[in-house]
Automatic annotation (TrEMBL):
Keywords: 4Fe-4S, Heme, Iron, Iron-sulfur, Metal-binding, Nitrate assimilation, Oxidoreductase. This is Ferredoxin--nitrite reductase, chloroplastic. It catalyses: 6 oxidized [2Fe-2S]-[ferredoxin] + NH4(+) + 2 H2O = nitrite + 6 reduced [2Fe-2S]-[ferredoxin] + 8 H(+). The keyword Metal-binding applies. InterPro entries: NIR_SIR_4Fe-4S (IPR051329), NiRdtase/SiRdtase_haem-b_fer (IPR005117), Nit/Sulf_reduc_fer-like_dom_sf (IPR036136), NO2/SO3_Rdtase_4Fe4S_dom (IPR006067), NO2/SO3_Rdtase_4Fe4S_sf (IPR045854), NO2/SO3_Rdtase_FeS/sirohaem_BS (IPR006066). Residues 200-358, 463-572 form the Nitrite/sulphite reductase 4Fe-4S domain. It comes from Gossypium tomentosum. NCBIfam families: PRK09566.1.
Length: 588
């Protein structure tokens, strides 16, 4: 809103290559998008008129642009969802019974749609009356106190209460009931957390390097930037209507590692570290996304911003998308569709005119991410840049934890580290700042020996799974338990000598990001040997992450889930050098 103002302080900038002792900058590269937007497109001047306007502090779609809009846009027009938070509407909802809430369209839309602006997702299909709550956890950094609070929330819901580490370095907690929400929100605020603007047409959790500040090889500490982004997006957890009425969801990351742990190619905006004329800053990638109908890698904006302009640039891109983005068919409302329509140069010019200085510098050729870099495994024990300290990466099978697990993780973070935990996009957890004198005892803790191993098997360590149909109404198949079971059975059939990343997603919305996996499984309905419908999976093959990233392609359609084990074993033998166990034993 026009009166919105938050003061930000630029993070400390890293050493420039000329002063770093052993640093050799290399130009970053990204694979070409599957469909490259035109560089220049003839765009009618009227098309560039902003489609939203500010009214009483909220941004509303203008009447003349309302023809053909989707149902979600109509719900936003009827009542801005942020009012449930900024005008305390949630307090009134929490006092009503679900029976009464379901009687009226307005309140039913509140619980099924608008509450997503508060990070609350009603599980109408599988957990009627209960909610999943998604947090904002910039860079995946959290504290033991925050972890204990989240454990206390889910514990009261018994078998309905869980927490999941997500593919955006974030927590999602499950089981909450509406009458408890005002108190939960208050508790989140007291421990420095928020769930605000984490769902629907908002900016998702800002992702950064999980080893930020402790990695001896890091380019830049991403934590200050991701924190600033999160503060801007939510106006320091007060609510920011200026960026809360986007055409669709929007993802952002700040890259700080040569390993590209941040997965920049699948973000709507990615900051890629680069110097220019002795100044540190970022080249920019835009438009990466997954959806049920289309997946595209991010492309260069041909722009560079200084470190001081990280927030103004983010604001300008969001405003261009908010003002000009299509609001019809939800399958065509992600930002890359707008870039396609305008062409990258027109889109760039629209971003530039929303910058404070009304211009953007062209991209730098002094990129700092090395092209040839073997991605490091952060699981296990590794030395930090701080002498005498190490971090330990632990495997959380498919990201699922319970209240007692979270309490124990918090205890380990306090006893062995600095009271801090780091979540990763692979659904794992890192305990940083462990004194080397404690390294012998930590891996022997029961939780790490029995449940969350620092040394998982080679196939388990690369396993990722979305929520699946246990809780998600969109999912076609169950994913988490099945992913573990299939992997265990495959490991009994073949021996694998190198990491293979396997991702599971319950539906074509691909929250499990199957297109970036070596082997991806997307839930679908298939037919068994008798021609009867059954749960199945489309199998994707060949996704890559890192500097030579590209998206995987469909390999085999509609494989019944009960037939997946031998199919996966064959894929591992044919494409990944696995050896059948029987042959391996015979050779031994």
């Amino acid at each position: 809103m026009s009166s919105f103002s938050v003061r930000f302080f630029a993070p400390q900038q890293p050493l420039l290559p000329s002063t770093a002792s052993s640093f050799k900058p290399k130009t970053w590269v990204m694979a070409a998008p599957t469909t490259a937007p035109a560089t220049s497109v003839d765009v009618d001047g009227g098309r560039l008129e902003p489609r939203v306007e500010e009214r009483e502090g909220y941004f509303v779609l203008k009447e003349k642009f309302r023809d053909g809009i989707n149902p979600q846009e109509k719900i936003k027009i009827e009542k801005d969802p942020l009012k449930l938070f900024m005008e305390a509407g949630i307090d009134e909802l929490a006092k009503m019974s679900f029976e009464d809430l379901d009687k009226a369209k307005a309140t039913k839309d509140d619980i099924d749609v608008r509450l997503k602006w508060l990070g609350l997702f009603h599980r109408r299909k599988h957990q009627y009356g209960r909610f999943m709550m998604r947090l904002k956890l910039p860079n995946g950094v959290t504290t033991s106190a925050q972890t204990r609070y989240l454990a206390s929330v889910i514990r009261k819901y018994g078998k309905e209460g869980y927490a999941d580490v997500t593919t955006r370095q974030n927590w999602q907690i499950r089981g909450a009931v509406l009458p408890d929400v005002p108190e939960i929100l208050k508790g989140l605020d007291e421990v420095g957390l928020t769930s605000l603007q984490s769902g629907m047409d908002n900016v998702r959790n800002p992702v950064g390097n999980p080893l930020a500040g402790i990695d001896p090889e890091e380019i830049v500490d991403t934590r200050p930037y991701t924190n600033l982004l999160s503060q801007f997006i939510t106006a320091n957890s007060r609510g920011n209507p200026a960026v809360a009425n986007l055409p669709r969801k929007w993802n952002v990351c700040v890259v700080g590692s040569h390993d590209l742990y941040e997965h920049p190619h699948i973000n709507d905006l990615a900051y890629m570290p680069a110097t220019k004329n002795g100044r540190f800053g970022f080249n920019l990638l835009v438009g990466g996304f997954f959806s049920a109908k289309r997946c595209d890698e991010a492309i260069p904006l041909d722009a560079w911003v200084s470190a001081d302009d990280v927030i103004p640039l983010c604001k300008a891109v969001l405003e261009a998308y908010r003002d000009l983005g299509y609001r019809g068919n939800r399958q065509k409302t992600r930002m890359m569709w707008l870039i396609d329509e305008l062409g990258i140069e027109v889109f760039r010019s629209e971003v530039a005119k929303r910058m404070p200085q009304k211009e953007l510098e062209r991209a730098s050729d002094e990129g700092l991410v090395q092209k040839q870099w073997e991605r490091r495994d952060y699981l296990g024990v590794h030395p930090q840049k701080q002498e005498g300290f190490s971090y330990i990466g632990i495997h959380i099978p498919v990201g699922r934890v319970q209240a007692d697990d979270m309490d124990e993780l918090a205890r380990l973070a306090d006893m062995y580290g600095s009271g801090e935990l780091r979540l990763t996009v692979e659904q794992n957890i890192i305990i940083p700042n462990v004194e080397n004198s404690k390294l012998e005892a930590l891996p022997n803790e029961p939780l790490l020996k029995d449940r969350f191993s620092p040394k998982p098997s080679i196939l388990m360590k690369g396993l990722v799974a979305c929520t699946g149909n246990q809780f998600c109404g969109q999912a076609i198949i169950e994913t988490k338990a099945r992913a573990l079971k299939v992997t265990e059975e495959v490991e009994r059939l073949v021996s694998v000598s190198r990491p293979v990343r396997m991702h599971w997603t319950g539906c074509p919305n691909t929250c499990g990001q199957v297109q970036v996996a070596d082997i991806g499984f997307m839930g679908c309905m298939a037919r068994d040997e008798n021609g009867k419908p059954c749960e199945g999976a489309d199998i994707f093959l060949g996704g890559r992450i890192g500097s030579d990233s590209h998206l995987g392609e469909l390999y085999k359609k509609g494989v019944p889930c009960k037939n997946l084990v031998p199919v996966v074993a064959d894929i591992l033998v044919e494409h990944f050098g696995a050896v059948p166990r029987q042959r391996e034993e015979a050779e031994d």
